[in-house]
Write a sequence for this structure.
């Protein structure tokens, strides 16, 4: 048990140094430069990865994905970080952050949207539509949302707002977070092996990959929604046709009598 105590003590010390540095350099008007991310990673190590990804997953615009890519890049070039632990730290941050966002949405998200949603052009009818959508496609939204920036920020919150079952949310959230961490961690690591000191090239590559994934995910969601809508419409038309035939048969029997 001594090694476990030493591990958590080192983890806490790294996290404390990282938070101290971040709070002293991050102001309301500051932007996340690559230098700031590098210093945060150098001081915080694995806790910094978890922190950045967690804050982004809570719904706060934060460079969690960039931090994962940067940490994976350094794992390939400097060997001061281990890529399995980088991926595990990012996955932990994704799961924790999404669950915090889910809890916020479930506890007070709906009241917040009902009160201030009009300033974001969100109407009660939109909330009702979101309820129906999450009832049918919430699991897919939570899973695939991890791979697109907007949904990564807000999917967990809206899952909580619409009271998605927590166990279902946790299952798809964890699966999406782990797969996302593996894919982007591997991308950063392999690209680091290829490009060495050119992290800007990796950022551009990741942006392209994110754009392609977002296009594919959105296209799949549109296709799935369209498919179910057409099938429901066809079922309604068939049901109406059956009712009409039954009425005609009933009228024919009444006439024959």
């Amino acid at each position: 048990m001594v090694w476990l105590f030493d591990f958590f003590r080192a983890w806490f010390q790294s996290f404390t140094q990282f938070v101290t540095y971040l709070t002293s350099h991050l102001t309301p008007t500051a932007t996340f430069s690559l230098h700031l991310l590098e210093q945060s990673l150098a001081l915080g190590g694995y806790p910094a990865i978890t922190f950045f990804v967690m804050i982004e997953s809570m719904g706060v615009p934060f460079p969690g994905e960039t931090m994962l890519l940067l940490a994976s890049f350094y794992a390939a070039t400097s060997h001061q970080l281990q890529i399995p632990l980088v991926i595990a730290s990012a996955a932990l941050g994704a799961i924790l952050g999404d669950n915090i966002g889910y809890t916020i949405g479930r506890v007070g998200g709906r009241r917040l949207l009902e009160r201030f949603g009009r300033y974001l052009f969100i109407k009660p009818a939109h909330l009702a539509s979101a309820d129906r959508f999450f009832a049918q496609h919430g699991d897919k939204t939570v899973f695939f949302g991890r791979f697109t920036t907007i949904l990564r920020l807000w999917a967990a919150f809206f899952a909580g707002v619409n009271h998605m079952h927590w166990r279902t949310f946790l299952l798809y959230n964890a699966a999406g977070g782990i797969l996302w961490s593996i894919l982007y961690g591997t991308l950063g690591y392999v690209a680091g092996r290829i490009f060495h000191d050119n992290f800007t090239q990796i950022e551009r590559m990741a942006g392209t990959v994110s754009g392609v994934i977002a296009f594919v995910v959105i296209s799949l969601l549109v296709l799935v929604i369209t498919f179910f809508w057409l099938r429901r419409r066809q079922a309604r038309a068939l049901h109406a046709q059956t009712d009409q035939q039954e009425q005609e048969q009933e009228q024919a029997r009444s006439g024959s009598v």
In short: The chain has a mean pLDDT of 76. DSSP finds nine helices and no strands in the chain.
